Amino acid sequence: MRADRWPIPFSASFVFLGSLSDFLFPGAGGPVSYTFHGAPSLKDALEALGVPHVEVDAIVVNGETVAFARPLRDGDSVAVYPHDVAPDGAVLHLQARPPAAPLFVADVHLRRLAKTLRLLGFDVICSPDLTDAAIVQLSHEAGRIVLTRDRQLLKRGTLAYGYWVRSTDPLRQAVEVVQRFALGTRARAFTRCSVCNGLLRTVEKDAVRDRIPPRTALWLDEYHECPDCRRLYWWGTHGARLRALVEFVLDSSAR
């Protein structure tokens, strides 16, 4: 076999700043050496190393801030920045800024996270019927931020908004998302249906009396209903637990 069939690969050095180190192998620290053939784009190289493009806000190559499409070249020194760590000097921001009123779509594996975020009042679509393609389409059409633990989903080329949830604990996941998107002051707890995501409305007791447990009707007069799924809500003995959950998430995310 001819030797020129196996060209010597090129090499570049990558440094991942801040939270981007979460995508590296455990224990990996300092520069990461990447070997390649041809001239892949920086986006392709980053995702080959396991870092979804939606988590990257800036790239500096040999001291110059560049775009995802810039071809990687032999000997390049690449520094990659997340949203909360900024390089010195002028910055070309690569991460799309989400809408002022955050909207989310979560994959089905994060349904408990979705429920907690809805308790806080945030708009989160989450359904077992949603395919990955449908999730990406919802994000594209409505500017919804994709929440997932599937890194491959976040590498979809058309995706503009997305976040890889690090924790595997649903409560810690909620704290993480509230911190990441600075949602603490935007929470409107108990205004949204935790099951279907609809906005709750106040209903007259007499209009729903036939759906209220008789003992509850004896002492409670305030009720709320989801206009989408018709679920009825009221403050029962579980109220203290739910309030404590909301307070924990908001207090923890503010630290």
Could you characterize what this model shows?
The protein has 255 residues and is an alpha/beta fold. It folds into 2 domains: 9-81, Ubiquitin-like (UB roll), CATH 3.10.20; 103-253, no CATH class. It is built from 7 helices and 12 strands. It has helices at residues 42-48, 111-119, 132-142, 151-154, 170-180, 214-219, 239-253; strands at 10-16, 32-36, 58-61, 64-66, 77-81, 103-106, 123-125, 145-148, 162-164, 201-203, 223-225, 232-233. It has a 5-stranded mixed β-sheet, with no helix packed on it. A 4-stranded parallel β-sheet has the order 7-6-8-9, sandwiched between helices. The chain has a 3-stranded antiparallel β-sheet with strand order 10-11-12, with no helix packed on it. A hairpin with a 6-residue loop joins strand 11 (223-225) and strand 12 (232-233). Helix 2 packs across helix 5 and helix 5 (170-180) crosses helix 7 (239-253). The longest helix has 15 residues, at 239-253. The protein is elongated and about 80 Å long. It starts with 9 loop residues before the first strand and ends with a helix. The model has no long low-confidence stretch (mean pLDDT 93).
